[in-house]
Design a protein that fits this description.
It is a single chain. It contains 4 helices and no strands. The protein is elongated. By secondary structure, the chain is mostly helical. α3 packs antiparallel against α4.
Length: about 90
């Protein structure tokens, strides 16, 4: 989950601003860039799922059944991409 991952990253970065630079020699630049790409994608999916998903789902109620199914499937994909499809508690 984006919020759960963001919290420790901000905390670690606020305690020592050089933490990200200290990690690069151990994992490499490519791994850091790959992580940042996936982290940004998770942020986008979280916004889509929380802000856009409910609006789009309510619009699906007035659509044909096939179109409504595809719209709801897309909303579910946003929830899955944001890791909001599972109750972590």
């Amino acid at each position: 989950m984006f919020k759960s991952l963001l919290r420790p990253l901000v905390l670690a970065g606020s305690q020592d601003l050089l933490t990200p630079l200290k990690i690069v020699p151990h994992v490499g630049v490519v791994a850091i860039l790959d992580f940042l790409y996936h982290f940004a994608a998770m942020a986008v999916y979280t916004v889509l799922s929380n802000a856009v998903g409910p609006v789009v789902s309510s619009m699906a109620d007035g659509m044909r059944s096939r179109d409504a199914f595809l719209v709801r499937l897309q909303v579910e994909a946003w929830r899955f991409g944001a890791d909001l499809d599972y109750d972590h508690e």
